[in-house]
Design a protein that fits this description.
The complex is a heterodimer. Chain A has 2 helices and 29 strands. By secondary structure, chain A is mainly beta. Chain B is about 70% helix and about 0% strand. The chains are: A mainly beta, B mainly alpha.
């Protein structure tokens, strides 16, 4: 009998003599949650570790870094007319696709899934936590002065309004985090609000969504909505407490997760529509459908029909800046194929391929 | 993760763990390392559960993660350590001595192969995957799978040709 014919029985005979240990699902979950937390902190941590500056001083129980702000050379004209179509290879020697052009990923390591894709370009943070915009001309513009202090492990966050030319982002300061609302079309700061915090609680101040000019800010003691247009008590009102999370907000609808909202009666969102969903789900720009790891977008109201994208074997999805859906599928060993899918028709167009030897494809500036 | 999804994940682990453990064990030859690799793979699957469960074949997705976890263990010290190649429970029974001695010798030869070659043989002859499927699991080309399998089989034959056992039976 040939060796090849004996191998199946040989391997089976040996491995089936060893009873599998019982899986410890609790440990698996704990490790899985740790992976999620590390992913969430990864970009901030990498930026902190990679800085060329040294640890300057130690305070509040942890080292602080004072890296130099960065400037980025122009990359040439980009085309944002069909959305940013921003996606990238996970491979160190892979490519990033942006505005119809391909770049070596190592040349654009500052663009990652933690940035925010907007119709005006990619809003991203440098190693000094200063906010930048890479616009359609390929030029880099800073959106606010460089923060003077960075809390250890502080991770800046940003979100964009789907209908208005607004982006909101966080900037660290002394015993506070400043939320900045910036008008990308006008190129100016609209307003800022200071969120008091201390030590590690500052890292809990996160911009979760922007819709109709209202900014949803998560803090250590709940999620609030900031209405920059007003003064007084309705400028900063509670939306939810504890583990309540805003997954997304579009067109007057809030997609929430974990714990039900309990908006203050004077909140500008008290009469908004609320839809329960998963934390990594997204709303269509008109708020009518939920995108969640599937080519089928589920309606948020009984009046709407589900939308099915005409794309085969896609696993990864996100909304592009023009409201279409970017989808990615495995196109063979170590190849990711990307599509742009129109809403509501569901028709999809292949827009490119990238290598995926070391992981999953990434949507730059918008990761589910 | 919501309750329904948590339950779904727990059911998935229960259903797929034994089989994937055997695959991991067949590649490592070490119970503890197989368990570690599998736990890491399932933890990553949990962290990306929406993505995993949306895959056409979630078990195949996790198998790929598990195999790569096993191969990643090469970077750690265990791979360099001496291993007997025979699990504690796998001693041959006297009643079927000849057949089991033969299998034990092949198993030992398998354990002596480079890890990727071993993975190729396990996936081909235990998991019954095609060359294309193995290429997808290992993230390499089909040609690489073919050459690794050929090299592995040659090495198995060479290792025991001196003893004559495999060569003799192959001639039958």
């Amino acid at each position: 009998m040939r060796l090849e014919d004996r191998l199946p029985r040989t391997i089976a005979d040996q491995v089936e003599r060893v009873p599998p240990p019982l899986p410890d699902v609790a440990v698996v979950r704990r490790r899985g949650r740790a992976i999620r937390r590390r992913r969430a902190l990864a970009v901030g941590a990498v930026a902190a570790v990679a800085v060329s500056g040294a640890f300057l001083f130690v305070a509040d129980g942890g080292p602080r870094l004072q890296p130099e702000p960065q400037r980025f050379d122009p990359v040439g004209q980009l085309d944002y007319s069909q959305g940013l179509r921003a996606f990238a290879s996970p491979d160190d020697d892979g490519q990033i696709s942006l505005g119809g052009r391909l770049f070596p990923r190592k040349d654009m390591s500052h663009l990652d899934t933690d940035a925010t894709a907007t119709p005006y370009g990619v809003v991203f943070f440098d190693r000094a936590a200063q906010a930048h915009l890479l616009d359609e001309t390929g030029r880099d513009t800073t959106l606010a002065p460089a923060p003077t202090r960075i809390h250890a492990h502080f991770r800046p966050s940003s979100k964009a309004d789907a209908k208005m030319p607004l982006v909101a982002f966080t900037q660290p300061g002394d015993e506070e985090v400043t939320v900045v609302l910036h008008d990308l079309r006008a190129g100016r700061v609209v307003d800022t609000i200071r969120v008091p915090c201390s030590g590690s609680s500052c890292r809990e101040v996160v911009v979760d969504a922007v819709d109709r000019g209202l900014v949803f800010v998560r803090t250590g003691d709940g999620t609030y909505v900031w209405d920059h247009d007003v003064t007084g008590k309705t400028r900063w009102t509670r939306v939810g407490e504890g583990e309540f999370r805003v997954a997304d907000a579009r067109n007057g609808r809030i997609l929430w997760s974990h714990v039900a909202p309990n908006p203050a009666s004077n909140s500008p969102v008290a009469d908004w529509a609320f839809t329960e969903g998963d934390i990594d789900a997204q709303l269509s720009f008109d708020g009518s459908h939920v995108l969640y790891w599937s080519p089928t977008l589920e309606p948020t109201t009984p009046d709407e029909q589900a939308i099915t994208l005409e794309v085969k074997d896609a696993i990864w999805f996100t909304f592009d800046t023009d409201g279409s859906v970017l989808a990615a599928a495995n196109g063979g060993p170590s190849v990711g194929v990307f599509y742009d899918c129109e809403i509501p028709s569901g028709s999809c167009t292949e827009i490119g391929e990238i290598s995926t030897r070391s992981g999953d494809p990434m949507f730059i500036g918008d990761d589910m | 993760m919501r309750t329904a999804s948590e339950n779904e994940f727990a059911e998935f682990v229960a259903a797929t763990w034994p089989r994937l453990f055997r695959v991991a064990y067949a590649i490592t030859g070490d119970v503890g390392q197989a368990e570690d690799a599998l736990q890491s793979a399932f933890a990553k699957a949990y962290a990306s559960w929406p993505r995993v469960r949306s895959a056409d074949h979630p078990e195949a997705y996790v198998r790929r993660m598990a195999v790569n976890e096993v191969l990643g263990l090469r970077r750690r010290s265990w791979w360099k350590a001496e291993r007997s190649g025979t699990p504690p429970e796998a001693r041959p029974e006297p009643a079927a001595q000849d057949v089991l001695v033969d299998r034990a010798e092949i198993w030992e030869a398998l354990m002596a192969l480079p890890p990727r070659q071993r993975a190729v043989l396990v996936l081909r002859y235990y998991e019954d995957l095609s060359e294309q499927q193995i290429a997808e699991v290992l993230g390499c080309s089909r040609g690489t799978v073919k050459s690794q399998a050929s090299d592995a089989l040659s090495a198995l034959r060479r290792r025991h040709a001196a003893g004559g056992l495999i060569a003799e039976r192959d001639a039958l």
